[in-house]
Amino acid sequence: MTVDQIMGEVRGMLTEIIGTEYALSLDIGMDTSFDADLELESIEFVRFATTLKGRYGDRVDFVGFLADKELEEIIGLTVGDVVTYVAGCLTFAGAVDG
Amino acid sequence: MAEITAGGVRFHVQRLAARDRTRRLGPPVVFIHGLCLDNLSSFYYTLANPAAHAGADVILYDQRGHGLSERPRTGYRISDSVADLAAILDALGVDGPVCLVGHSYGGAIALSYAVAYPERVASMLLIEAHVPVPGWAEPMAAAIGKVGLDLTEGDLGRWMAEHARLAAIGKDLVNHTTLMTDLLAAEPLSARELQMLTCPVHAVYGEHSDVLGHAHLLDSLLPRYILTVLPDLDHFVLLRAPRALRPIVLEWVTAWTAVGVP
Q1: How high does pLDDT run on average in chain B?
Q2: According to the model, what pLDDT value does residue B2 have?
Q3: B168 within a domain of the structure (yes/no)
Q4: Which is the most buried residue in A63, B98, B133, B243, by most CB within 10 A?
């Protein structure tokens, strides 16, 4: 998968989590921040982590990625940080072609 | 596993496996969040991972009506919450004793669960716990009821404006479920029932907490009780100072997972 494809999937997941009503007013991209832009609640971030695990499986250890971060660091992440992390995991797992 | 159905209700559950495999596992640690505007994420990003790192299998769940769990219109008495917890642990195949961490109203559930199922609780850590004794529910209901109003000012109004989607869940709970009437109708625990609790209980309260009286009430009733009062903090200890709680949780988890260390 390419980074653009992962970005597209992640955009779809986030749209479902925050609702189309909120998501339509935003152009979710690599620079979008979870806190300042999406205003993602902590529980929604838990759902996002679960959705990522459901989509990419054990190749992406997102809980491990978050485990050593403080809450302020987590909500300070951008969508691009997560997409880049996922792409790195998939590359490591030999699953990326782009 | 993210979802299970227990007692006919769909619950959002998160499990974190113990990271330190050099220890033989003690009882799982179950986190119980507070009422109305709270959910499992209060623990997920603060105390749950450190507990797993310290060697505990961790279970977190959103109570009915909260977070990502189903929001039925009824079933919000404390006895329902106790039955929910028992059904969730049954569904997860956890049949031995557990260690409970209860925050605020979650502390009331933990205490009530331990009274109902003393053999299923090894130990409790209570953070700013409400104690469901006679007269306890009215002030809590008065505070929770404000969530159902269209507040725009004050700390709560501003918070709800900034957290519109969470506030919508809280409003729905207060205005369209039996949560308020169930809260007021809950059967309180008696002094005798609390005196019969033999498992160790460690309670943590903020120095300026509005429920600090509950800390001293527990001190007068529970046979095995330790109290830590954190200076300069109010009821929102978990929100404002998770780092102050972490060493307390780690020491408690270590004591309870150190069973049979080779």
Answers
A1: 92
A2: 86
A3: no
A4: B98
Find, among B38, B51, B172, the residue nearest to B105 by Cα: B38
Structural domain containing residue B236? 3-133+188-256
Closest C-alpha among B22, B19, B60 to residue B39:
B60
Tell me whether residues A71 and B67 touch, CB distance under 8 A.
no
Measured between beta carbons, which residues in chain B are less than 8 angstroms from residue A45?
A: 41
Which residues in chain B are closer than 8 Å to A74, comparing Cβ atoms? 45
How far out from the chain centre does Cα A20 lie? 17
What sign does the dihedral B64-B66-B68-B70 (CA atoms) show? positive
The pLDDT tens digits of the residues spanning B89-122 come to 999 999 999 999 999 999 999 999 999 999 999 9
- Domains belonging to chain A, first-starting first, are 3-92 (1.10.1200)
Nearest CA in chain A to B53: A67
Q: For residue B261, is it within any domain?
A: no
Q: pLDDT tens digit string along B40-91? A: 999 988 899 889 888 899 999 999 999 999 999 999 999 999 999 999 999 9
Considering its fold, how many domains does chain B have in total? 1
> What average pLDDT does range A36-53 have in this prediction?
89
User: B245 in a domain, yes or no?
Assistant: yes
Q: Which residues of A34-44 are buried (b: 16+ CB within 10 A; e: fewer)?
A: beeebbbbbbb
Q: Which residues from A are below 8 Å from B14, CB to CB?
A: 46, 50
Q: Give dist(CA B76, CA B74) in Å, integer.
A: 6
**Does the structure show a pLDDT above 50 at B260?**
no
B110, amino acid identity: A
This complex has an ipTM of 0.83
Residue B12, both tokens: 């959002």
Between A22, A39, A46, which is nearest B40 by CB? A46
* Residue B195 resides in a domain: yes
Burial annotation B194-224 (CB, 10 A radius, 16+ → b, else e): beebebbbbbbbbeebebbebbebbeebbee
